């Protein structure tokens, strides 16, 4: 019997386990997943915890709940991938062979890589919201905070869900306005980008929205260190921004096993073809989601769209045919803007976000690059879709490639 091995049971790994178990004959192929975390978090929910909209129990379900019959799940950390020998070693020394390997080990925050970030003020006046621990600590801080300089800082790119820091800024404006203390909170958004976002049209729209909400934008700021004593962040050029509360989006890196196994770039992301999702080093290794060094967004929607492509390419590979299906970098994101509204953007490698309607041309019902109440409701509805449809690899009425239908090109 041949073996398909999947490393990681986050969004990407879980989707692929469901897809490939349906696709591969059970008497010919075994499907095994290795995952160390037996709790599966709805990670977009971390954003809402600091503002009291969600609690931990509302965004947490057992990892095993989402795997079909016939998928073996091994609860373990991974020690090393020996790609030359088609072998994975677990921390307990056990070895697992494979014929095809899918790497879905994701990404993680690495605050220890920035001097002073994980210093004496960590989870006292300096927080992240990309982990459940950070989000809950920040929720506790906000409950009693009397105001001051709130700084939201992206240390470096790439990061998971690139719009999440903007959403945090917008929700902070809404939250402190609702508490009647917005005049006591000075919000500053600090980014290494030259604008609010990576794509020009979206950057212009989102930057204007920051201005309308009286949120300061500091761009081209490359974080060098965090001064815990004087409560300042400093960039490599000598600029500084003072804070009373620092919400940090730290440097992101791949799983340590990737670099240890010689498969990663300088940040520990797997080197892979951005279109076929195949490793550039080993033909029987494929990569999906945040684990890859793709120039696409590190977001759940990307993993979903990649999964459709990867499923077809793995079948092509098994049948010794050329990999003909190409991932175009498709991503879409709901952006919470506060006060019961949101923005939806849809883009890919070649095309930036455009105005229009999604997913059905001329009908929508969601508007693109424009604030609406319906976009906010779509963001909230996505939690149900995530648990019940997306993770289980059930069909959604969207294409894995970016469609230009319904979009307005200026």
Describe the structure.
This protein is of the alpha/beta class and 410 residues long. It folds into 3 domains: 2-106 and 255-318, FAD/NAD(P)-binding domain; 118-251, FAD/NAD(P)-binding domain; 331-390, no CATH class. It is built from 7 helices and 24 strands. The protein has helices at residues 11-23, 132-144, 164-178, 200-212, 256-260, 300-318, 373-390, and strands spanning 2-7, 29-35, 39-41, 60-62, 71-75, 78-82, 87-90, 95-97, 100-103, 107-109, 126-127, 148-154, 185-190, 216-218, 223-227, 232-235, 240-242, 245-249, 252-254, 285-287, 331-338, 341-347, 356-360, 364-368. The chain has a 5-stranded parallel sheet, covered by helices on one side. It has a 5-stranded parallel sheet with strand order 11-18-12-13-14. Strands 6-7-8 form a 3-stranded antiparallel sheet. Helix 3 links the parallel strand 12 (148-154) and strand 13 (185-190). Helix 1 (11-23) packs parallel to helix 6 (300-318). The protein is globular, with a radius of gyration of 21 Å. The model has no long low-confidence stretch (mean pLDDT 96).
């Amino acid at each position: 019997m041949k073996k398909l091995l999947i490393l990681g049971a986050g969004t990407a790994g879980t989707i692929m386990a469901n897809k490939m178990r349906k696709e591969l004959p059970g008497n010919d192929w075994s499907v095994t997943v290795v995952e160390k975390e037996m709790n599966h978090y709805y990670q977009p929910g971390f954003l809402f915890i600091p503002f009291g909209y969600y609690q931990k129990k509302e965004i947490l379900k057992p990892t095993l709940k989402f795997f079909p019959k016939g998928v073996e799940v091994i609860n373990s950390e991974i020690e090393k991938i020996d790609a030359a020998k088609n072998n994975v070693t677990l921390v307990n020394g056990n070895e697992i062979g494979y014929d095809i390997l899918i790497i879905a080990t994701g990404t993680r925050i690495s605050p220890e890589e920035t001097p002073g970030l994980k210093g004496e003020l960590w989870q006292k006046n300096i927080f992240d919201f990309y982990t459940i621990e950070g989000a809950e600590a920040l929720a506790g801080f906000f409950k009693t905070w009397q105001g001051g300089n709130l700084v939201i800082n992206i240390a470096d790119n790439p990061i998971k869900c690139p719009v999440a820091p903007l959403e945090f800024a917008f929700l902070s404006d809404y939250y402190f306005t609702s508490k009647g203390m917005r005049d006591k909170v000075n919000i500053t958004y600090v980014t290494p980008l030259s604008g609010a976002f990576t794509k020009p049209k979206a950057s212009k729209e989102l930057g204007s929205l920051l201005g309308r909400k009286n949120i300061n934008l500091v761009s081209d700021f490359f974080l060098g260190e965090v001064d815990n004593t004087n409560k300042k962040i400093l960039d490599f050029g000598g600029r500084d921004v003072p804070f009373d509360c620092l919400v940090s989006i730290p440097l992101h890196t791949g799983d340590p096993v990737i670099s240890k196994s010689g498969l990663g770039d300088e940040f520990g992301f797997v080197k892979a073809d951005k279109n076929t999702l195949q490793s550039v080093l080993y033909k029987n290794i494929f990569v999906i989601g945040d684990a890859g060094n793709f120039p696409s967004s590190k977001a759940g929607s990307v993993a979903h769209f990649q999964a459709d492509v990867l499923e077809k390419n793995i079948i092509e590979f098994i049948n010794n045919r050329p990999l003909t299906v190409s991932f175009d970098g498709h991503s879409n994101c709901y952006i919470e803007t506060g006060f019961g509204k949101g923005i939806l953007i849809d883009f890919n490698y070649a095309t930036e976000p455009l105005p229009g309607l999604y997913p059905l041309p001329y009908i929508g019902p969601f508007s693109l690059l424009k604030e609406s109440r319906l976009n906010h409701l779509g963001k909230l509805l996505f939690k149900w879709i995530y648990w019940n449809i997306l993770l289980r690899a059930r069909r959604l009425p969207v294409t894995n490639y970016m469609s230009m239908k319904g979009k307005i090109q200026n």
